[in-house]
Structure formats: C-alpha cells, structure tokens
Amino acid sequence: MAVTAPTIARLSGVHHHFDGAVVLSDVALQLGAGEVVAIVGPSGCGKTTLLRIVAGLISPARGDVTRPEREIGFVFQEPALLPWRRVEANARLLAASDDDGIVEQLLSVSGLTEHRRKWPYQLSGGMKMRLSLVRALAARPRMLLMDEPFGALDSITRNRLHDEFATLHKSRGFSALFVTHAIDEAVYLADRVLVMSEAPGRIVREFTVPFARPRTSALRYSPEFASLCGAIAESLHELAGGA
Amino acid sequence: MAARVAQLLKRSLPPLIVLGVVIAGWYALAYSLDNNFASGDGSALLVPPPHQLFVGLNDATLDRITQATWISLSTAFVGFLLAIAIGVTLGVAMSFSRSLESALWPWLIAIQVTPIIVLTPIIIRVVGASFGARLTVTVLIAFFPITSNTLFGVRSVSSGLHDVFTLARATRWQRLIRLQLPAASPTIFAGLRVSAGLAVIGAIVGDFFFTRGTPGLGRLITFFFQDTRSGPMFVTALIAAGIGLGFFLLVSLLRRLLVSPWDQP
Ligand SMILES: Nc1ncnc2c1ncn2[C@@H]1O[C@H](COP(=O)(O)OP(=O)(O)OP(=O)(O)O)[C@@H](O)[C@H]1O
Ligand SMILES: [Mg+2]
Description:
heterodimer, A: alpha/beta, Rossmann fold, six-stranded mixed beta sheet, three-stranded antiparallel beta sheet, 9 strands, 34% helix, B: mainly alpha, MetI-like fold, 9 helices, binds adenosine-5'-triphosphate, binds magnesium ion
C-alpha cells in the first residue's frame, strides 16, 4: 500500500534550525494517500518540528515540501482548546455545519457525550486530549497530523481509541502521520514506523508493519507483534546508547 | 438554604463592620468639631451627622441635585461607552500594526500622563461648552486602560490557538472575532474596571469648568461648598460615590456573565 498509493505529502532534503541549533538534518518523508505512518524518536529530536513543517506552520530553512492545499487536521501536543467554548462547541469548531452526525458519534466514542456542557478547564488532561482529537477528526481532514495524541490516556481508554481510530480511518480513508512515544501504539496503528535520531533529527530507520487490517487486540499479544516492537525498541536504544 | 444564608452573612459581615466603624467615626467627627452646630436651630454647619444629612434638602435643592445627577450620569455613561469603543478599536488597530503602535504609543502615554484638569479648559475652548466637550474629557481620561489592556490581551493569545486558526485558514477578521477578542476578554475587563471609575471622575472633574448652563455634580458641589450648605454637599458627594460604585458593579456583573464561567485559573 505504502509504495503504490499516490503520495499526499512529501518532504525531501529538509533542514531546519532554531537560533543556529540544527534541529532537522536532511529529512525525507513520504505519506501515501490513506496511509498511516508513525514517527518515534527520543525527546527533543525534532518530531514536533517535523509535523509543523508538514502542516505548513513553519517553513523549513531548506528543502522541498508538498502537501494538500487544505483539509489538514492537526492534533497538537498541548490540546489547544478554546477556553470560552464548551466541550460541544469546541468539538464543532472546525466541523462543517452539516456535520452534526459525526460530531455526536465522535463525542460518544471518545466518552465525552456526558461532559458536553463542561468548560475545558473542567476536563482532565486525557479528556482534553480526546476532545482535541475529536475536533480534528470532525473537520473530515484529508491528512491528519497528530502529536502524541494518545499520550495522556490510561491503557484501556487508549486501546479503545486505537480501535475507534482504525475504524474511522477505514471508513474515511484519510492519511495520517503521527508522533508517539509508545512503540506498541505505533505498530498497532501504522503501516510504517519511522525512527528518528537524536538532534539533529534524521529518519534513520524505517519499519514496514506487515499486519493485515482490521487489526484486533489479539494482535497485541502475538509473538510477531512483540518481535517487531522489540526490533524498533532496539534501534531506538542503539541510537541512545551510541552503539 | 440555611447554609447559603450563613455563607452570605459570613461574607457580608466584615464590610458591614467597617460600615459601622465609618458611621461611628462620622458621628464622632461631627460632634467633636468646634462650632459644627449653629447656636439657633442646632443644624450642622461643617459636617452633618448621618441622621441630619437630609435636613435643609428642600424641593429646589433636590431638583438641582437631580438635574446635576442626570448630567453627570449621562456624561459618564455615554463617555464610558465611547471610551470602550475607541479604546478597543485603538488597541486592536495597534495589535495589527507595529508601526501604528510605535507611532501612537508615545502620544497615548502623553495624553494619559497629562492631568485631565489642565486639558479641560483647552477642550472647552476648542469644542465649546457642550455635551461634546464633557464627553471628550471623559473619553480622554478613561480610554487608555482599555486600549493598553486590549493591545496586551490580543497580543498574548497562545501560539497553539493561533496554529488552530492558521490551519483552518481563518481570515484576519475571523481570527480577531473568534479568537483574539474572546481570549483577551479577561484582560479587557480588567481595563474596563479601571476605566469605569475614571469615566465617573472625568464626568465630574470636567464639570468644574462649565461655568454656564445647568451644573453637573462637580460644579453643584462647589456651589454647596461656597454657600456652606454641608448637608446637600455631603448628599452630592454620596451620589457621586454611588455612580462610581454603580459603574464598577455593572462591569463586575458583565464580567461575571461573560468571562467568569470559563476563565478559571
Ligand atoms: N520555537 C522554537 N524556538 C527555538 N527552539 C525550538 C523551537 N521549537 C523547538 N525548538 C527546539 O528544537 C528541538 C526539537 O524540538 P521538538 O519540539 O521538535 O522536539 P520533539 O521531538 O517534539 O520533542 P518531544 O518528544 O519532547 O515533544 C528542541 O531542541 C527544541 O528546544
Ligand atoms: Mg514534541
């Protein structure tokens, strides 16, 4: 799928620096239509910067970027909710006006329906994150960028949302590029997993995830799953240990 | 229910105690001043004790006070509304353009630091002794905290929220109305609270220079002062204080409705 599908976003030769410190060095990346790609890498290696470049929120110092003109969804590392809008209004913020059904559905699968009248300050960190995810998905993006979207959640909620995400992805067919610190999450959700090195960030390894969809939680306990996770973890350790 | 009453009592008790102390101090002052009471009818000459406030408040005096109150109240209110419109507009305009900000800012500071009392006669010469002059004085004294707070509030919207609007390809106008002004509203309200008091000061201080026509509270109080009519003078002062308090409460009420529900630390 990754190889044959038309490309929706592409980076090549991307360099970026902040105040002279090189953050990204010669990054190349492709995202196929309908593809799900995960990025893992040590903290501070430039994952957020990379996503922001893909989104067009920053222009790289050097390199080429192609991306869809519009319909880009972004789930930020810090859930950027409007404090003066209730949960429901935040969820609807970017949705088209005829999108009532999808907002309701998303609120319900993310367990936010009963909290719809609350203000953002009344939500827990995980609830804010879920709401931020709902808001991005309700906009029906063609390309979804997510920065540690499931980070602040307990494992049961997280696994449930993984499956909901996969279902939604199947029915909508958007492309997704997401950053995570959880290797099992990367493997469970993605078609490919990219491993980034310490700063200056580069993509040093790429793993193709061979598991057929739809994936079920049984997969999480299979030896193949464990061995792929192990291989990715090992390449991260090598990077950290300077082996 | 009982708990709420107890809560209310607990909250209002301290200010009520202070009120009692103030009234007691007022009485003490009234009765300790030499020559405070006329030898004939015993009416107060300098400081009327609270129960004598309304002595000597005949219909004609009451009429003058009512008219003056109306003049000062309408000046302060319309002036405050104008100050809000002008203050917010200036703040937003400066947030859009750094060069406009650097062009205007020193002059705004200059207006702000010039005592309004010296500007008032100039304004009356230029504008004429009209309602317009009264409004000008009020706006000049009251707009600045709104301008600076709007500018500051609109500028300090978090970059994360801006990113959301950038990706949604929001226009500058949508960004202003749907993001920046709501985000700045707590800060703007802090400015409104200061300006509300300033508008009342502007309306009353400006009045001192209006030598013709029906006097507002400012000039009326000087009349009562010159005629040593302490009762009406105190009543006028209390009304002015009441107007200031009313403005403050109005802003607080609006803040409670519009901002407090969601603006939690
Ligand atoms: N706006 C900025 N100005 C200056 N330096 C920045 C800026 N944004 C990021 N950096 C720097 O760039 C580097 C990469 O940051 P980035 O946020 O992309 O890392 P990350 O991989 O997302 O880390 P984490 O996993 O902790 O979220 C860091 O060293 C950071 O200090
Ligand atoms: Mg990050």
